[in-house]
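step 4 of 6: structure.
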Amino acid sequence: MLINGQRWRSVWPVSEHTGVGIIDQTRLPHELVTVTLGSSDAVRDAIANMLVRGAPLIGAVAAYGMALAARENASDQYLEERYRFLDSSRPTAVNLRWALDRMMACLRPLPQAQRLSAACALADEIANEDAVLCAAIGEHGLALIRKVAADKPAGEPVQILTHCNAGWLATVDYGTATAPIYMAHDEGINVHVWVGETRPRNQGASLTAWELGQHGVAHTLVADNAGGHLMQHGQVDFCLVGSDRTTASGDVCNKIGTYLKALAAHDNQVPFYVALPSSTIDWTMSDGLAEIPIENRSPDELLLMEGVTEQGDVKQVRIAPSRTPGLNPAFDVTPARLVTGLITERGICAASRQGLLALFEQ
Ligand code: MRU
C-alpha cells in the first residue's frame, strides 16, 4: 500500500534473509521508522511489544522468526524451543500458532542442512499468500460496497464504521477490513470511514487514520463511544472490522470494544461484517466466549496516554489518579448471532459452522 505515494508492505526479508524488515508501529503516526530484526529473540520482542501487531502480520513475522531461528541453529531441539518461545509472544491471534505450525510441519521432516533455505522460502510464501488473500477479501467486500453505493442518493458517501486497525499495517498488504475500502475508493466510489479511536492503544487514531489518509480515503476519527450514536442517527451504512480468531461456529474475537459496536449495530439494524483470511479461523474451537484466550495487557496502557507535543516531542502523561488500578483486557468476543456476514478470501458467508464449511470444506 502507499506511504507518500510509494508502495510498501508491512514486512520484508532483508539481506538474503539475515534479517526481517518491519515498520515500528509504536512510532506511528508521528514518525515512520523501519527496523531490521536480526534474530528470533528480536522477533519475539517486536511481537510482544507491538512494534508489529494485527493477526495476519503477527503470523507472517513469526514465520520469519522461525527462519531466523533456523539460521541460528537448525537442530530439532532448538527449533522446538523457538517454536514455543515465539508462540508465547501473544495469546489471542490464532495466526501466530497457525504460521508457526506450518513452519514446523515443513522443517521437522527435513535434514538439518536443508532447513534454512526451506524456512526462508516458506516464510516468504506465508507473507506473499497473506497479501493475495487480503486482495481476494477486498474483491468480495467491494461487491458489497458497490451494492450499498448503488442504493445511496447521488453524492452521498457509503458510510463505514471500523474499529482498531484491520488495515494493511495489520496484514502484509491491503488489510482485511480496509481492502474493500481501498478498492472501492480506487474505482471512484464515494466512501467515508468512521474510525473509532480504539482505546487504550489507539490503533484507530494512530494507525487506521494514518493509512487511510496516506491512501486518500475520506475518514473521520470518532471516540469509541460515538459509534452507537452515529448508528442511531442513520450515519453508518455498515460496520466492517477484522478478527484475531474466528471459531468454527462463527464467533469473532477482535479488539476490545468490538462487541459493543456489534450490539449497537444489532439494535439499530446496521449490518455488521467481519473480514478475515482463513488463517484466522480456529477450527478447534466452537465457543468463542468459553475458549478463546483473551490477552490481558499492562494497565499502564490505560493509565498513561501518549501523544506528540507542539514541539514534536512524543510524551506520555498519566490520566488517572496515581493509585487507581487498571484492568486492560485487549480483546472481546462478538457472538456469531451479532455478525451479519464473514468476508473471506473465498466469498462472504454466514457467521456459522454451515456458512464457513460451505466455503472451506476440503
Ligand atoms: O492488539 P492488536 O493491535 O494486535 O489487535 C489487532 C486487531 O484487533 C485487529 O483488528 C485484528 O488483528 C484484525 S487485523 C487484520
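step 5 of 6: annotate
 - The first helix runs from residue 40 to 48.
 - The mean pLDDT is 97.
step 6 of 6: archive
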